[in-house]
Amino acid sequence: MRNTLDIITVTKDDPEGLAASIASTAKLRSLAGVRQIVIDSSSKSIANEIKARLSVENNLEYVWQNPCGIARAFNLGIERSNAEWLWFLNGRDEAHPKLNAELLLQILSASQAGLIVFELEWMQSGNRQIHPPIWALWPPIYGNWVPHPATLIRSGLFEQYGGFNPDYKIAMDGDLWFRLFSKHITVDMLSIPIVLYDETGISSIAAVETGKEAKKLILDNLGMMVGMWLSRGLHLARALRHYILLTR
Question: Mind listing the pLDDT tens digit for each residue in 86-99?
Fold first, then answer.
């Protein structure tokens, strides 16, 4: 039987951070149709420690993988999943303590979208990342408004459009958003925080590397962005022509 939600968590040599993430998802994993998949690339001794800790958890699968990058770890999680929806929750991030687990599953059951973008709360500062105004939704690089730890993705999209690109070490989620948005998938946006985001993660502290990858992301998708901008202009022209004809 297919699960409703699989939570995919990637970790490496951080048993304490992972333990906090696992504890935060306990209520979700107590519900039917929810499972967590841990992809671990820790050293042998730490991996043994993590595996022993997780052996007592319900609805959790542990997988060890040779260290080969976050994108490949995410992709392995996708391969191991059998759920309708996927949630990529980082190893140090936590499900929000105020998250209503039953309501989340109801939202997933009712949604017809390909992506559901929730909000996140910064773990250390307590600040909340909110959705941008409508004019800033495209391209999806304004303030990184599609944060992968707060975004649930329908698994069928990976079958259609591929997984995370291993050419990116940090911005693999941004690359995915560009590819999915170019296919005109439907997106739900809910102003509900579902995750406490650890501000000490690699994307936050490796500012120079993040900047390089963000620049590569923009250049790699420049042609597609220009094409979509032109398409929006054509759409506006057609609408204007339609209403001009109506008012003659």
Answer: 999 999 999 999 99
* Cis bond upstream, residue 15 (ω within 30): no
Quote the mean pLDDT of the chain. 90
Measure the CA–CA gap between 39 and 34, rounded to whole angstroms.
Answer: 17
Confidence at residue 38, expressed as pLDDT on a 0 to 100 scale: 98
Coil, helix or strand for 134?
Answer: helix
Question: Tell me, what DSSP letter sits at residue 112?
Answer: -
Sign of dihedral through CA atoms 161, 163, 38, 195? negative
CATH topology classification for 3-223: Spore Coat Polysaccharide Biosynthesis Protein SpsA; Chain A (3.90.550)
Q: Where are the domains of the chain?
A: 3-223
Rg (CA), the chain: 19
Predicted TM-score of the model (pTM): 0.88
Return the percentage of the chain with pLDDT > 70, whole number: 96
What is the per-residue pLDDT for 55? 93
Q: Mention every residue, 6+ apart, whose C-beta is less than 8 A from residue 228.
A: 138, 182
Q: What is the three-class DSSP state of 76?
A: helix
For tokens 């296919």, name the residue: 183
Q: Which two tokens stand for residue 240?
A: 């204007």
Predicted pLDDT at 232 = 75
Q: List the structure tokens of 217.
A: 């992301």
